[in-house]
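Re: the 620-residue chain
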Amino acid sequence: MNLFDWRSRSPIPPPTARALALPGSQRSGKDDGSDASSENELAQAFFAHVTQVGVPAQESVIKDAASFPGWITVLSGPAMTGALNVPVELQDKLLAVKLTSGRIAIAHDPLDFAQVKTRIYLMRAELVDLGLDVQPNTLAVTAQVLREIRVAAEKKTGSQGAEVRSAAVEQFRQWIVQAKELGATDVHLRIRGGNRADVMVRVDGDLEHLPASKAGLTNHQVLTCMKAAYESLADRHSNSDGNFSELETRSCIIDSQLGIPNLRLRFNSERGFYGPAAVLRLLTTSVNHAPMGFADMGFGLSHCALLEKAQRMESGLMIQCGITGSGKTTAAKTFLETHPKNGIGAFYQVADPVEYLIRGVHQIGVQRSIATLSQVGKKDPYTQTVESVLRMDPDIVDVGEVRDPISARAAAIIAKTGQFAMCTMHTGSVMGILNRLVDPNIGLSRSELTAGNMLGLLSYQALVPKLCPQCALDLPHARRNAQDTPRDQHYLDFIVQTLGQRLGLDTSGLRFRNHEGCEACRQRGTKGLTIVAEMMIPDDEWLDLSAQGNDRAAWRNYQNTYSDGDLASANMCGKSALEHAIYKALNGALDPIGLERFGLFEKYQPSRRTHAKAGKEVLA
């Protein structure tokens, strides 16, 4: 069988000898990787087979552009990388084309098949490895038709495509305006199967369809807007590459070209089986408005006191952790803008990229490069910038997100040299911060982290939807709503019994989400977001236990020392995020159904003072 026969329904296997289904080859079905010689034989057999492939029948060749399947864009060419890189002399003999069906087709000129047959295999293999839906049969097309398609694709992205691009940019802007009006934090553009696409927004923590897109959108519509936004609106030097690609990750900041007051976007896209997906984070840009207060964000009064104490520190490292979209950057903005020295101190931020504009802070956007770590004597741009900032007599340096050895070392150096350093991290609790920093992929040591005044404030936070006060349900109404779904009713009873009987709390103030909502919350049942947090400033006992690697004991000791042991108390000193969430649920602000995202009740261990307060029921 011809592996490149467009009449064949058998898919061409990816470029691994194990996957080669060659005529006459024998396989045992085992895949233990022990027989390297047989793999080499299979590979040699494949390339020998390729050289024997004949030229296809001429009556099957596509000879005019009208007969070519509907297409969206050309993915190969001299400017591409990997197997999609086709030199100029072959660009009218071999094309990888995205069809309107969403599949990828490989088209070639049969008269020059000998020149491109190996490239066909490698090209298809790379596309399959990228997780794309590749048509198993290739298309035999004359060179003239291939040239017409290539030129038409170039015109789409050139001056003759300006009108289409302008319309796509305007459609993109309309989506962003609608998302802003809804109070969305993110916009998701997603390509789906069946020539369908979605535009969704995250409001109050939940994804929902943008009203304007409910009628249905095609892959081509959303992809064109995605591409136009990246290539036409990205701020100069913020984009990871000048051209949008469906096959590679892209990121940028969209600001001055967006044309929407006080709003900028962080754009990230990633490839997928049916096509790329892009997420736009909405970032407010006004530096003239008063910053949101810590209490308004949802921090407890004791949290606010710790943050204000951290603002009086002259040196050390402040670490804010949480998942993506937990409000860390917003909290850091408020910390800096409300700092007593803002306007008279030397505040710097080195970020990849700069998201929010912060009043009184000199912000430097720079892209870090992990590749330079392996190059002897060469420093990446991020490290060079941090070292330069240290020579600028700084008071505070915000190094952004710590996610690699470069940023971790930068934060540590700043704190060690006597300045105050700030950073963010992705961890699920304060207890996990040190373990994350000493991970080999980050590379700091426990001895340096637990020495002297290295660590300042450590905090974890998450954003949780607030219940709509107009339509939230009390317990009897919530039980009636759940009576048709035994599973939901059972879990509701479990939550109430845990809080009321096991922990001895007054559950009369509990409220639950009304999923039908009301006009006040636009039928969501929630209205806005609030922060749930845990926070600490390490003491000597915590440092001693953490230096020994006993993070769990260190956190438990801190809780037992500083917590008042009362889950109904507003004092959050020494309390976990779960305990903060319980407090807010008891006061009707949060739906208790979602409390276990911060820890399972079966594993919850109250502090000693809570044990003493609640008595035997807690110990049971």
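The longest strand covers residues 455-467.
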